[in-house]
Design goal:
heterodimer; A: alpha/beta; Rossmann fold; 6-stranded mixed sheet; 10 strands; B: alpha+beta; 6-stranded mixed beta barrel; 24 helices; 21 strands; 55% helix; elongated; binds adenosine-5'-triphosphate; binds magnesium ion
Chain lengths: 222, 858
C-alpha cells in the first residue's frame, strides 16, 4: 500500500526555481498495477524516485505499508529499499564491474541472505532467459539483456513494491514485451504492487489503473 | 576534405567541457598542484638547507677556497691572482710561522705559532672570538697581539701585559677563544699568537730563509667566477700548491657534505617521481572519465587528431593550472616554514626563491600530464567509436605483435616524454654536465625497470589474492568477497593503481631507510667520544704518571688513549734510495724522520684498501708494514714492496703488507706507517695521547699538565671538534627534516591518488544504495578493497625499497645496510590505513548524497 499526500518537489538552481511536482495525492493499494503516464518533463521519474526514497520531497508525505518514509535517515531508507522496494531504471544501472549473476545476487548479499541466493539468482536469470550469460559483464550484454538482468535484480529479494521507470523504453517491441510480461506475471503471482512509468499506450492498457501527470500535477486517474 | 579544426575552436570546446564539470576538474588541478607543489617544496628546502650547510662549512675555512704555497708567488702567479680579483673574487693573505715569544716574568721564551692576518678582511666567514669581547679589526693594531690562553699560562702574563716578539714589544689585547680556520692552518703546534701584517713586518721575522707557510684565502662573490673555475685557474698557475675548498676542511665534514649532497639529490629525484606520480594518477583518472565524451565526439564525426587536439589542450591547461598552483603552494610553504624551523630546530635555511625550481616544477607538471594523456589518446586512433563505449573489454584481444604495432605512436610519444623527464632529472642533479647526463639516463632506466618489476609483481600478487579468496574452503563475509572481487573487475585498473601506489610507497620508504642507514653511519664515523685534546712528546717515563694525572682531572669524557711512536727515516723503497725520488712540496716530509708505530691488531677505524693485515698470532718471517694510501702513492709503494728504514742507528727492513686508509681525526690518523708488533722493540719511544674533555675543562687540563710536565705539548682541538660536531648534527637534522617532509608529501600524494578514484565510484555507491545498502555497508566494501590494495602495494613497495636502499647505501653512500622488518611491516600497515582513510574521506560525501541527484548527473 502506497499513500502519497500533498507531495511537492521544488528545485532551486542559481537562475531558476523549478516546481517539478506541485502537490500530488495518491493511494495505490497492495497488489495493484499502476501505470504512470504523461509528457516528457512532467515529473514522472521524480515522483518514482521520491516513492523509492531516492530523493526527499520538499513537502508532503509518502507512507509505505503504514510507515512514513519522508522523515527517515539515509541509512534507514536504504534498509527499507533493501526490504521492500525493487527499482528498475530506464537506463539499467547495472554495476559495470560485476557479472550478470553477481549483479542479481547483490541485493541478497546486501541484506545478508546470500546463502540460498545463488539458486534464486539462477532461477531468475533462467526466467529472463539469460542463464547462459550469467558470467558476462554488463558491457558484454545488449541493452535488452541488461534490462532483463536489472529486472532479475529487482525481483531477487521478492520486494512487495516494484517501481519501474520506463523499463521498456530502450527496448524493441519483442524485448519490451518479454520484460513487461515478466513484470506482470510477478505482480499477479506474488501480489507485488507494481508502479510503472511508461509512454506506451499498449503497455498502460494492461495496467489496473492509469495515472497521468502534467506539469507536476495528476490530471487523470482512471 | 574538411578544414582542420582551428586551435581556437579546439580550445573553446576544451574550455566548455572543463566548465561543465568544474568540481572534477578542480580535483584534477588540486592533485596536479599537490604533485608539483611537493616537488618544488622538497627541492626548495633541499637547496636552502644545502646552502646553509655549505655556509656553515665555510666558517671552518673562513673562506671559500684556500691556497697554500711553499714559495713566494712569482710574477706570473701574482698576475693570475690579480686577474681573479678583477673578476670579483676577494682575497686575503695569511702568513703562519713559528717563533719564540718572551716575557719578563719567566726566563725561557716559548715556541709559538704566529698567524699574521689582515684583520679588516679576515675571516671571510665566521668570527674570531676574543676575551674580552671585541672585534678583531678594531682592537688588533700593529703593536698588539691576540694570544691563546695557554701562552698566558706559560709566560705567566695577563691580558694588557707586554711580550717581546722578534725583539719588539707587543701588548696582549685579548685571548683568542675561537678561531674559525684553525683546523686548516698548518703548524698549529704551540700556543697561538695572532698579529697584523704590519706587526709581523715590525718583528723582522720574515727575513729571507725563515720557515713560513703562506696561505691565500679567497671568497667568491655573486658574479665572480665559480669555485671550480677559480680552483682550476689556481691549480694551473700553482701546480705545487695545496688547494682546498670549503668542502675539504675536515674529513668528517667532507664526508658528511658528500653524503648530504647525494642524499638531497636523491630526495629531489624521488620527489620528482612521486610528484609526477600524483600528476599521472590525476590525469589517468581524468582521461578515463573522458572516454565517453571522446566516443560520442567520434560518433559525431570528430577525427582522432581533432580529439587529440582538444584533449591535449585541455590537459595541458589542467597541468598548467595545477602546476602554477603547485608552485605557489610550494613557495608559500618555503617562505612560511623557515622561521618556524629556525625557531624549533636551530636551523637557519637560506631564504631564497629560485626560478629554476619553479620552472622545473612546471615542466614536470606539463610533461607528466602529456606523458599520461598523449599515449592513450594516440591509442584511440585505431579504435572504432563503438568499441570505446565498451572500452573496458575488448571482445577479441589481438596478438601482442599487433598490439605493439597499434601502440607504436603511443610508445614513441611515451619514450620521448620519458626522455624529457630524464632531462629534468639530470637538471635536478647538483654537479657537472656529465654527472647530469648519467643521472638522467640512470633515472629513466631505473624508473622503467621498477615500473616493469612492479607491474609484474602486482599482476602476480593480484592473482594470488584472488586464488586464495576463491579456493579458501571457508566462505568469507560478503563485504570481503565484494571488496576483493572489486579488484579484479574489468575497468577497475587495480594493477595500474597498485603500480602507482607501489612506486609511491617504494620511494617514500626508500627515503626513510636510506636516511636511517646514513645517520647510523655518520654517527659511527663521528662518535661523541672522539679525542679533542692531544698530548705530544710524552717520554716513556712520563707515560703512566701523565695518564694518571689526566684521569684525575675534571671533565674527562673518555679514557685517555696512548700510542707509542718511534722516530724513523725511510732509507729506500724496493732498493731505490729515498733521495732519488723526486719528492715535491708536501712529499718532502718523507725525507725527514717520521713518527712510526707498531701494532698487533688492525687499529680501530682503519680500512684496508690493498693487501691484507698480517696474522697477528703467527710469527712473521720478516717485519710487516702497513702504510697509508697517501704515503704509498707518494713513495710508489704497494703490497709486496720492501722498505728499508733507519731508526736510532738501527736498520729495519720490512715488507709492505697492506695499504690502509684512516681519517686524520682518529688516534692512529697521524701515523702513516704501522709495523708489525715487536719490530720496534728496544727503540726509544715517544708517546702521544688523546682524550675527550669537556670543552670548558680544557684550560684546567692544560694548566695541570704544564705544571707537572712542561715539555709535553697540549694541542687543543675542542673548539674545532665542537664546530665539526655542530655541522654533523646540522647535516643530520637537515637530512631528517627533508626526509620527513618528503615522506609527508609522499603520503599526501598517495592519498590523493587513491582519492582520485572517487568519481569512478559514485555511480556504484548510488546503485548499491538503491539496492538497499547502508552507508556502512558501502564503506565496508570499499574499505576491504582499499585495505587490500594498500597492503599489497605496501608489501611490494617495501620489498623493492629494501632492495633499492641497500643498493643506494652500499654503492653511493658508503654505508652499511641492515634488513629490519619493523619499518617494512609498519609501512605495509600504514599504506593500508592511508589508502583506506583516503578512499573513505573521498567517498564520504557521496555516501551522504541523495541517489537521484547523482544518477541524474551521471
Ligand atoms: N536537479 C534538477 N534540476 C533542475 N531541473 C530538474 C532537476 N530534476 C528534474 N528537473 C526538471 O523537472 C522536470 C521533471 O523531470 P522528470 O525527470 O521527472 O521528468 P519525466 O516526466 O521523467 O520526463 P521523461 O518522460 O522525459 O523521462 C523536468 O522539466 C526536469 O528538467
Ligand atoms: Mg523520466
Amino acid at each position: 500500500m502506497i499513500q502519497v499526500s500533498g507531495l511537492t518537489k521544488t528545485i532551486a538552481t542559481p537562475t531558476h526555481r523549478v516546481d517539478i511536482l506541485k502537490g500530488i495525492d495518491l493511494e495505490i493499494p497492495r497488489g495493484q498495477f499502476a501505470a504512470i503516464m504523461g509528457p516528457s518533463g512532467s515529473g514522472k521519474s521524480t515522483l518514482l524516485g521520491l516513492l523509492a526514497g531516492l530523493d526527499s520531497p520538499t513537502s508532503g508525505h509518502i507512507v509505505l505499508d503504514g510507515e512514513d518514509i519522508t522523515g527517515l535517515e539515509e541509512d534507514e531508507l536504504a534498509l527499507l529499499r533493501g526490504r521492500k522496494i525493487g527499482f528498475v531504471f530506464q537506463s539499467y544501472h547495472l554495476i559495470p564491474t560485476l557479472t550478470a549473476e553477481e549483479n542479481v545476487l547483490l541485493p541478497l548479499e546486501l541484506s545478508g541472505h546470500a546463502a540460498d541466493g545463488v539458486e534464486r539468482a539462477r532461477e531468475l536469470l533462467q526466467s529472463v532467459g539469460l542463464l547462459d550469460r550469467r558470467d558476462h559483464y554488463p558491457v558484454q550484454l545488449s541493452g535488452g539483456e541488461q534490462q532483463r538482468v536489472a529486472l532479475a535484480r529487482a525481483f531477487v529479494v521478492r520486494p512487495p513494491i516494484l517501481l519501474a521507470d520506463e523499463p521498456t523504453g530502450n527496448l524493441d517491441t519483442a524485448n519490451g514485451q518479454v520484460v513487461l510480461e515478466l513484470l506482470i506475471t510477478l505482480n499477479r503471482r506474488e501480489g507485488t504492487t507494481l508502479v510503472l512509468v511508461t509512454h506506451d499506450q499498449q503497455v498502460s492498457e494492461q495496467a489496473d489503473r492509469r495515472i497521468t501527470l502534467r506539469d507536476g500535477r495528476v490530471v487523470l486517474d482512471a | 576534405m574538411r578544414n582542420r579544426l582551428s586551435w581556437s575552436t579546439a580550445s573553446k570546446i576544451a574550455w566548455r567541457e572543463a566548465r561543465a564539470s568544474s568540481a572534477k576538474f578542480l580535483f584534477v588541478i588540486v592533485a596536479v598542484a599537490i604533485g608539483v607543489g611537493s616537488l618544488t617544496g622538497v627541492r626548495g628546502f633541499s637547496r636552502a638547507f644545502y646552502g646553509m650547510l655549505l655556509r656553515e662549512a665555510r666558517t671552518l675555512m673562513a673562506a671559500d677556497l684556500s691556497l697554500r704555497v711553499f714559495a713566494i708567488p712569482n710574477a706570473q702567479q701574482t698576475a693570475t691572482m690579480d686577474q681573479l680579483i678583477r673578476r670579483g673574487v676577494r682575497r686575503t693573505w695569511i702568513t703562519e710561522t713559528l717563533s719564540m715569544v718572551a716575557s719578563t716574568t719567566v726566563p725561557n721564551p716559548v715556541l709559538v705559532s704566529i698567524k699574521a692576518v689582515d684583520a679588516h678582511v679576515y675571516p671571510f666567514y665566521g668570527e674570531v672570538k676574543l676575551d674580552p669581547p671585541g672585534s678583531l679589526a678594531r682592537v688588533l693594531t700593529a703593536d698588539s697581539v691576540a694570544v691563546s690562553e695557554d701562552l698566558l699560562l706559560r709566560l705567566k702574563v695577563a691580558v694588557g701585559d707586554s711580550v717581546r716578539l722578534g725583539g719588539q714589544p707587543f701588548r696582549i689585547i685579548g685571548v683568542v677563544t675561537s678561531e674559525p680556520d684553525r683546523m686548516s692552518g698548518s703548524l698549529n703546534v704551540g700556543p697561538r699568537v695572532m698579529i697584523t701584517r704590519e706587526g709581523l713586518d715590525r718583528t723582522g721575522l720574515m727575513s729571507i730563509g725563515s720557515r713560513a707557510s703562506e696561505r691565500y684565502l679567497f671568497r667568491l662573490t655573486p658574479g665572480s667566477p665559480g669555485i671550480e673555475e677559480v680552483r682550476q685557474t689556481l691549480q694551473k698557475s700553482f701546480p705545487e700548491a695545496l688547494i682546498a675548498d670549503f668542502r675539504q676542511t675536515h674529513p668528517i665534514i667532507t664526508q658528511g657534505l658528500n653524503r648530504a649532497t647525494t642524499f638531497l639529490s636523491l630526495v629531489s629525484l624521488i620527489a620528482l617521481i612521486v610528484g609526477a606520480l600524483g600528476v599521472a594518477t590525476a590525469m589517468q583518472a581524468h582521461l578515463q572519465q573522458k572516454m565517453d565524451s571522446i566516443a560520442i565526439m567520434k560518433c559525431l564525426g570528430a577525427r582522432t587528431r581533432e580529439i587529440i587536439q582538444i584533449y591535449v589542450l585541455q590537459t595541458i591547461g589542467l597541468g598548467l593550472a595545477g602546476g602554477l598552483m603547485g608552485i605557489a603552494f610550494g613557495s608559500v610553504v618555503e617562505a612560511a616554514f623557515p622561521p618556524l624551523i629556525a625557531r624549533y630546530f636551530h636551523l637557519r635555511p637560506e631564504a631564497h626563491w629560485d626560478p629554476s625550481t619553479a620552472i622545473q616544477g612546471l615542466a614536470v607538471g606539463i610533461l607528466t600530464t602529456l606523458l599520461f594523456t598523449l599515449p592513450p589518446l594516440l591509442g584511440i586512433q585505431r579504435i572504432r567509436p563503438g568499441v570505446i563505449f565498451r572500452r573496458e573489454m575488448a571482445e577479441v584481444r589481438p596478438g601482442w605483435k599487433q598490439r605493439l604495432r597499434d601502440a607504436r605512436a603511443s610508445l614513441v610519444a611515451g619514450g620521448v616524454i620519458l626522455c624529457g623527464i630524464g632531462v629534468i632529472a639530470g637538471w635536478l642533479q647538483i654537479g657537472t654536465l656529465r654527472e647530469s647526463v648519467r643521472t638522467g639516463v640512470a633515472f629513466v632506466v631505473a624508473l622503467v625497470i621498477s615500473l616493469l618489476v612492479l607491474a609484474a609483481i602486482a599482476w602476480l600478487l593480484l592473482r594470488s589474492v584472488r586464488t586464495f579468496v576463491r579456493r579458501c574452503p571457508r566462505r568469507f563475509p560478503a563485504p570481503i568477497r565484494h571488496g576483493v572481487a572489486n579488484l579484479y573487475r574489468p575497468g577497475n585498473h587495480a594493477q595500474a593503481a597498485l603500480v602507482a601506489l607501489g612506486i609511491g610507497v617504494m620511494f617514500t620508504l626508500t627515503i626513510f631507510l636510506v636516511q636511517r642507514g646514513m645517520m647510523a653511519e655518520m654517527f659511527k664515523s663521528a662518535p661523541p667520544g672522539m679525542p679533542n685534546v692531544f698530548l705530544l712528546d710524552i717520554t716513556a717515563k712520563e707515560r703512566d704518571p701523565i695518564v694518571d694525572l689526566i684521569r684525575a682531572q675534571r671533565g674527562i669524557e673518555g679514557a685517555p688513549d696512548v700510542v707509542g711512536t718511534v722516530a724513523a727515516k725511510v732509507v729506500s723503497i724496493d732498493g731505490k734510495p729515498i733521495d732519488s725520488l723526486n719528492l715535491k712540496a708536501w712529499g718532502r716530509r718523507f725525507q725527514r724522520a717520521r713518527a712510526v708505530a707498531q701494532a698487533a691488531e688492525r687499529p680501530a677505524h682503519t680500512v684496508i684498501v690493498q693487501g691484507a693485515w698480517w696474522n697477528s698470532r703467527a710469527a712473521q718471517p720478516e717485519p710487516q708494514l702497513s702504510i697509508t694510501e697517501e704515503a704509498a702513492q707518494i713513495l710508489h709503494a704497494h703490497p709486496g714492496s720492501h722498505m728499508e728504514w733507519e731508526a736510532a742507528g738501527r736498520t729495519i727492513r720490512a715488507r709492505v703488507a697492506a695499504i690502509h686508509r684512516i681519517d686524520s681525526i682518529h688516534m692512529y690518523g697521524r701515523i702513516e706507517f704501522i709495523f708489525s708488533a715487536g719490530t720496534l722493540d728496544g727503540l726509544p719511544i715517544i708517546y702521544y695521547g688523546g682524550v675527550r674533555v669537556a670543552p670548558r675543562a680544557v684550560a684546567q687540563l692544560q694548566r695541570a699538565t704544564y705544571e707537572k710536565f712542561p715539555t709535553v705539548t697540549v694541542v687543543n682541538v675542542a673548539d674545532v671538534l665542537e664546530i665539526v660536531q655542530q655541522v654533523v648534527d646540522q647535516i643530520a637534522l637537515v637530512v631528517r627534516f627533508i626526509s620527513m617532509f618528503a615522506i609527508l608529501a609522499g603520503i599526501v600524494i598517495l592519498a590523493s591518488s587513491v582519492a582520485g578514484t572517487r568519481f569512478r565510484r559514485i555511480r556504484e555507491v548510488v546503485i548499491l544504495k538503491t539496492l538497499g545498502a547502508t552507508r556502512r555497508r558501502v564503506a565496508g566494501i570499499f574499505s576491504v578493497e582499499f585495505m587490500v590494495l594498500g597492503a599489497v602495494a605496501g608489501l611490494m613497495g617495501s620489498l623493492l625499497a629494501t632492495a633499492f636502499s641497500a643498493l643506494l647505501l652500499k654503492r653511493w653512500l658508503d654505508a652499511d645496510f641492515r634488513v629490519d622488518p619493523l619499518p617494512n611491516l609498519l609501512c605495509i600497515v600504514l599504506t593500508a590505513l592511508v589508502a583506506n582513510a583516503a578512499g573513505w574521506m573521498a567517498s564520504y560525501r557521496i555516501l551522504g548524497q541523495k541517489p537521484l541527484e547523482v544518477l541524474r548527473a551521471e
